[in-house]
């Protein structure tokens, strides 16, 4: 036997399924099990002699630091993982130095984000921290050299983060990268009613679908999130109701493309939104996330009606990326500039005051000076109040990375020129003196103000009065900047409290069952219960035998089946080897 053995599993559930080979055939086809041997030298032995053996480590008592990069979908995943770990007993800390394990939740959209992720891994290893990786980077390219030997939790496997963390703390490497499926059909992801720690207790981020229907040539996220898979309307409405019961007063709907929602399950975005509007209490608001032009075109009339609803922000994020049809064709964006203009013009007419945010990529391969000037003209025409300017970065494995590249100096100059144009106008100057209704939900980065948003999701800074947090108030706008306005609460105006429950405390776990709450009140720490059929002392590992409350619906039986199947395989290997020797 080797001195130390490390097994890396892509996904334990992929080992035994209805479509797989039977156990007696499995010894010849072990696609998802990759045994690795880690040899110890004398120096390493000296370092590990003082460490306790892995089976003596008690999981659920360590401190965990979580870092998330990227979009609101990724942030929601990070909140869910934090909630499950805290519910199990782990302490979520803001201090990376005191943490025993770092959970790094990555973004693969741009090179700088992945560079930060890679540097964080290196820093964790230098600090002798245990590391678990999550997000789109390891999901899209799990075999990159700098990810070798590290545990990975896939974007659709976040409900199993406790298992991965537990095994990693014991010194093992586990990789769960499989897809959630029901009768062979891909699901939107993990359940939406999992425990969660909201970064802001007043804001709930709900992922309505994962993946998309496009194949943009520059996009790496597609490699991680895959094709479109939507949650059912019932699941999403239930999640919204639960959020309001926990004191949330603002909901963000997010995905890689909200406009494509429901096409895989026979419904559409307007149908979902009308159902959600029915359960939004007075004083609470809904914000819709990014949608690409092709899919919103079909629903313009209904979308205008929804965006005019008093409990829905008149705000829409529609990325154009370029105002050149030839560049859009090379990007495979599946629309032309005229389509984008049709959407914007229609919504501006039907939803007075609407905020349209957009994205632009500078220096995409093949972009000429004439192409770029078309983009400059588009920005000059619409003067977008919110504009996300991105210098093109070729992402490994994408078609755009193989195209002839625009020189770096040209990309940099175009990015600078567009930024200067954007900063040449002030979108809010004409609003000084207005009286606006705003919902207060956050604290500013400099901690000098509270942050509120008016019905058009424009940022309004208000005085730091604790009585205003989570409330809808009327303010007089007395100052305007490039990205914000400042408002003073009107003295004679009524402060409106959303008709929701008291908000959870910052860091408090949402979605806990009554069992959890009773345990907390009695001062006892919740522990996962071992499966009755498998004694604790003889279980293969705790994450095969333990059932967390949100995994109990059939999960225990499936885990037991997998465990028994693995035992059968091991026994067959053992006796097969003995027979060969005899």
Automatic annotation (TrEMBL):
Keyword Chaperone: no
Organism of origin: Melospiza melodia (Song sparrow)
Residue numbers spanned by region Disordered: 35-57
Compartment list: Endoplasmic reticulum membrane; Membrane
Protein name, per record: tRNA-t(6)A37 methylthiotransferase
Keywords, alphabetical: 4Fe-4S, Endoplasmic reticulum, Iron, Iron-sulfur, Membrane, Metal-binding, S-adenosyl-L-methionine, Transferase, Transmembrane, Transmembrane helix, tRNA processing
Its job: Catalyzes the methylthiolation of N6-threonylcarbamoyladenosine (t(6)A), leading to the formation of 2-methylthio-N6-threonylcarbamoyladenosine (ms(2)t(6)A) at position 37 in tRNAs that read codons beginning with adenine.
Source taxon at top rank: Eukaryota
Enzyme superclass (EC): transferase
Annotated ranges, domain MTTase N-terminal: 62-170
PANTHER family assigned: RADICAL SAM PROTEINS, THREONYLCARBAMOYLADENOSINE TRNA METHYLTHIOTRANSFERASE
Cofactor(s) this protein requires: [4Fe-4S] cluster
Iron-sulfur among keywords: yes
The record's free-text note on cofactor binding: Binds 1 or 2 [4Fe-4S] cluster. One cluster is coordinated with 3 cysteines and an exchangeable S-adenosyl-L-methionine.
GO cellular component: endoplasmic reticulum membrane
Gene coding for it: Cdkal1
Positions of transmembrane segments: 556-576
Domain TRAM: 429-491
Enzyme Commission code(s) on record: 2.8.4.5
Catalysed reaction equations from the record: N(6)-L-threonylcarbamoyladenosine(37) in tRNA + (sulfur carrier)-SH + AH2 + 2 S-adenosyl-L-methionine = 2-methylsulfanyl-N(6)-L-threonylcarbamoyladenosine(37) in tRNA + (sulfur carrier)-H + 5'-deoxyadenosine + L-methionine + A + S-adenosyl-L-homocysteine + 2 H(+)
GO MF entry, a single one: tRNA (N(6)-L-threonylcarbamoyladenosine(37)-C(2))-methylthiotransferase activity
CDD domains: Radical_SAM
Main location: endoplasmic reticulum
Membrane topology summary: Single-pass membrane protein
Similarity annotation: Belongs to the methylthiotransferase family. CDKAL1 subfamily.
